[in-house]
Amino acid sequence: xxxxxxxxxxxxxxxxxxxxxxxxxxxxxxxxxxxxxxxxxxxxxxxxxxxxxxxxxxxxxxxxxxxxxxxxxxxxxxxxxxxxxxxxxxxxxxxxxxxxxxxxxxxxxxxxxxxxxxxxxxxxxxxxxxxxxxxxxxxxxxxxxxxxxxxxxxxxxxxxxxxxxxxxxxxxxxxxxxxxxxxxxxxxxxxxxxxxxxxxxxxxxxxxxxxxxxxxxxxxxxxxxxxxxxxxxxxxxxxxxxxxxxxxxxxxxxxxxxxxxxxxxxxxxxxxxxxxxxxxxxxxxxxxxxxxxxxxxxxxxxxxxxxxxxxxxxxxxxxxxxxxxxxxxxxxxxxxxxxxxxxxxxxxxxxxxxxxxxxxxxxxxxxxxxxxxxxxxxxxxxxxxxxxx
Length: 389
Description:
The chain has 389 residues and is an alpha+beta fold. The protein has helices at 2-26, 324-388, and strands at 29-31, 34-37, 42-48, 55-59, 65-68, 71-72, 79-84, 88-93, 102-109, 113-123, 130-133, 137-138, 142-152, 157-162, 165-167, 170-176, 179-189, 198-204, 212-218, 221-230, 242-251, 257-261, 271-273, 276-279, 288-296, 299-307. The chain has two helices and 26 strands.
């Protein structure tokens, strides 16, 4: 009974040893997975253990033989044998694309066929994103922008930023063979101050190693024009030359401006070049209101200038930088204030003098009462005297 148990244990140990040896012999070839960026070069290695000179075959994912014992079998010059030794077989694949992705077989033909698979993973980094605008942005309306990364693997991360603050959008993706197309769409209101403002679309990807693909997009907001007339400072007298410049700000810019004179026609001597109006040899007959008008498809704007031409000997300066009306008003206020102060001073003085006179009159009254009392006293005495007699 004891002998049978010992035999059973020895048998189990032998079976375990045979299984371990078989497992060890099966691991005579090893393959390592490879990750490469599209367009780069991938090195596929097959490690050999206890190699005895048997046939080694390397096949592509389509199970086409690339190399047979170090000899090229497939006419694809992108594959090159780098090393063939009893310990290592290494091939290189240049200009890799996503179609090359898959499992590459390292096969060793002995009594039994042993093989291992090296998985080739191809990463496709994103190119610079493109920005599409749904429709022209107009002041007071909304703009819709879509940032598109047409091809990446794995999918790129696409975000919008303005002044380094993220604008949250709606992200969508579409499969395209072995790559993915990513888009991010945002909508927001715009005003004329947003014209030429920069919004950035950024794409990140593991293959970029911390770098980014960025498209800095300048907003194009259309708005109605604003017109402003620039005129010379100082006094204009007869014989002078007047030049007015009409500046416009709008998107799109008005192609031209129109000069007019209210309730009259422009002087015959008027010269108009572009947005500038020039009147040489001014006379008092040229006085009036001149207007400049600019227009685009979103509206129109008008600015006016009042021309006053003086005689050469005139003292008064038209459109002077000194506001005489304001100065006159200030002087009137000062004169009024001085008069009020004088009135208050006189009133205070009169009141003080009146108080003094009243006090004096009061003193005299008291003195008169004393004198009357004194006289009455004397009369009483005399009366008393008469009564005693």
